[in-house]
Design a protein that fits this description.
- This protein is an alpha/beta fold.
- It is 27% helix and 18% strand.
- The chain has 18 helices and 24 strands.
- An eight-stranded parallel β-barrel has the order 1-2-5-9-10-11-12-16. It has a six-stranded antiparallel sheet with strand order 17-18-19-24-21-22. A three-stranded antiparallel sheet has the order 6-8-7, with no helix packed on it.
- It is globular and about 80 Å long.
- The protein binds ligand LLGJG24Q and calcium ion.
- The site of calcium ion has 6 residues, from loops.
- The site of ligand LLGJG24Q has 14 residues, from loops.
- InterPro entries: GH, GH13_cat_dom, Glyco_hydro_b, Malt_amylase-like_C, O16G_dom_2, TreS/a-amylase_N.
- Its EC number is 5.4.99.16.
- It comes from Gulosibacter bifidus.
- Pfam families: Alpha-amylase, Malt_amylase_C.
Length: 577
């Protein structure tokens, strides 16, 4: 299916595959930059940092909820879908953010939280007050808390039931998440219309895409488990049809923390598409497992098993985000092993996961951080980075819940890490002051001044990746290696595939991506029978590597936790095409 030729938002380059090529950066408005010294990040602060994000090589900023909210779940408890939290600015500030991002050919993705609202939302207050009124059936009410008894509880550290008794309506209401987040009743056509209009409201303002938060939980049935019910898919199909018709070129991203065979359903089919993108939850914990176990097997298996998805769809891959490092997609034994490695202090755990940032998880080991990022950027899927991870920011496990990794961005060694001019006590969360990750030395300004810093390395690899469309658009084929710690795959794209995807120039390309998870130097033989006799060039420095033998094998030596991106080419004539 084709997008047709959507009207282009001013400033943006036309590219129907923009969401596949893009590198995404999740940025919490609250934590990024405070423009008016009230201690809280805001839109004007974020706008002032767009040049930085462009310099870094970011294509899309993902801005989690910034709507009016009591903030009992970081804004995922929405009180009014159409207004901006006053401390972040105004709707006009948001509009300016979109315009200024577009001027830099950067796009903006926002969260649409439709499974539930805050209990402070007017709809819920009205629903409690007047069961027979216009909002009476907007939520899932019951006289008993024994319905849907088999449904699992997601926030296991906080909630004991998915039902809470409301003393005003004198009924129970259903909530998949916190008890202050009542689930909307999608059986109500009025609710469905409201949701469509909320999505239209933000697309009218110019946003390029919507992350559909907690999308599996829209519908409940007696027979099912309330996760990815058929009616939920029907609803998503209708939402997609509306977006394609009214806003061609904008995208929907499914946040479905489920097994791959369930998640692929959120792409729909070529004829009846659902989302353009879906997060890949199972790959992420297996990357962390490989880094500690020094074994490639589990990760290799998950990469080999990647299911077919429509040619118009893409995965979103990530290492960290604003939530805990979720361990829902691994079995209990695996989970306990990972807790042992990565969450040895009970304060590091929350629900079914680990509430730490990337650098502390990887013991601030620069080689390991680079290996993990290089792997992320090589996978088949669009990579999502989390603000601050480009400088190796630390976390604060003494803060509550997931706030541990939502602390202010560290811009400089100045007061409040350059995040805000407010009195330090006024900040919504304190800046990180731990010994290893103290903002005095972990900050953008200091790393800008060091060409060998993680920040400069991240920028280099992002720009290098952009030069090779194969990473965004090509296939991934796992290849054999004779070492348990060495993972190898080839990313490839034919000229034809590139032309079919809207490309003009020749971008036929094959890149061998190899990663050693071993903690000491190793030597491995890689089997590439399809590429026998081809030469290899290092994408970073342009150095020629040994030619692949006529037997299809090549030997490589790795330093501890090292990786290569090697462009495969014909020995004489294909170079630099
Ligand atoms: O709005 C409620 C939550 O929705 C998202 O949740 C997802 O994160 C959970 C873990 O924090 C995960 O267990 C669940 O499967 C996901 O849907 C959102 O990202 C959260 O921040 C929010 O609390
Ligand atoms: Ca502010």
């Amino acid at each position: 299916m084709s997008f047709g030729t959507p009207p282009l938002l001013p400033g943006l380059q036309r590219d129907e595959n923009w969401f596949k090529r893009a590198v995404y950066y999740e940025v919490l408005v609250r934590a990024f930059a405070d423009s008016n010294g009230d201690g809280i990040g805001d839109f004007q602060g974020l706008i002032s940092k767009l040049d930085y994000l462009q310099w870094l090589g970011i294509d899309v900023i993902w801005v989690p909820p910034f709507f009016k909210s009591p903030l009992r779940d970081g804004g995922y408890d929405v009180e009014d879908y159409r207004s901006v939290l006053p401390e972040y600015g105004t709707i006009d500030d948001f509009r300016e953010l979109v315009t200024k991002a577009h001027e830099r050919n950067m796009r903006v993705l926002i969260d649409i939280v439709i499974n539930h609202t805050s209990d402070q939302h007017e709809w819920f207050q009205e629903s409690r007050r007047d069961p027979d009124g216009p909002y009476g059936d907007y939520y899932v009410w019951s006289d008993t808390d024994e319905k849907y008894e088999d449904y699992r509880i997601i926030f296991v550290d906080t909630e004991e039931s998915n039902w809470t008794f409301d003393t005003e309506r004198r009924q129970y209401f259903f909530h998949r998440f916190f008890s202050h987040q009542p689930d909307l009743n999608f059986e109500s056509e009025a609710v469905q219309r409201e949701v469509f209009d909320v999505v239209r409201f933000w697309l009218d303002l110019g946003v390029d895409g919507c992350r559909l938060d907690a999308i599996p939980y829209l519908y409940e049935t007696e027979d099912g488990n309330g996760e990815s019910e058929p009616a939920t898919h029907e609803f998503v199909k209708r939402l997609r049809a509306m977006v394609d018709e009214e806003y061609p070129g904008r995208v929907l991203l499914a946040e479905a923390n489920q097994w791959p065979h369930e998640v692929v359903d959120y792409f729909g089919t070529e004829e009846e598409p659902e989302c353009h993108m879906a997060f890949d939850f199972p790959t992420m914990p297996r990357i962390f497992y490989a880094l500690r176990s020094q074994q490639k097997q589990e990760l290799e298996d998950v990469l080999r098993e990647q299911l077919e998805i429509p040619s118009t769809a893409a995965w979103g891959v990530f290492l960290r985000n604003h939530d805990e490092l979720t361990l829902e997609m691994v079995d209990e034994e695996y989970r306990q092993t990972m807790y042992g490695w990565y969450a040895y202090d009970p304060r590091m755990r929350v629900n079914v996961g680990i509430r730490r940032r990337l650098a502390p998880l990887l013991e601030n080991n620069l080689d390991e951080i680079k290996l993990a990022n290089a792997l992320l950027l090589s996978l088949k899927g669009s990579p999502f980075l989390y603000y601050g991870d480009e400088i190796g920011m630390g976390d604060n496990i003494w803060l509550n819940d997931r706030d541990a990794s939502r602390t202010p961005m560290q811009w400089s060694p100045d007061r409040n890490a350059g995040f805000s001019s407010a009195d330090a006590g006024k900040l919504s969360l304190p800046v990180v002051q731990s010994l290893v990750y103290n903002y005095g030395h972990v900050n953008v300004e200091t790393q800008m001044a060091q060409s060998a810093s993680l920040l400069h390395w991240t920028r280099r690899i992002l720009h290098l990746r952009r030069e090779h469309p194969v990473f965004g658009l090509g296939n991934l084929q796992v290849v054999e290696t004779d070492h348990e710690s060495v993972l190898a795959f080839v990313r490839s794209m034919s000229d034809e595939a590139h032309a079919n995807r809207g490309g003009m120039h020749s971008h036929a390309e094959r890149i061998l991506c190899v990663f050693s998870f071993a903690h000491s130097p190793v030597h491995a033989r890689i089997q590439l029978p399809e590429f026998a006799g081809m030469a290899m060039e290092d994408c970073f420095g342009g150095q020629e590597f040994p030619t692949i033998g006529e037997d299809g094998a090549v030997d490589l030596t790795f330093g501890a936790q090292q990786f290569y991106w090697l462009r495969l080419h014909q020995p004489q004539f294909e170079r630099n095409t």
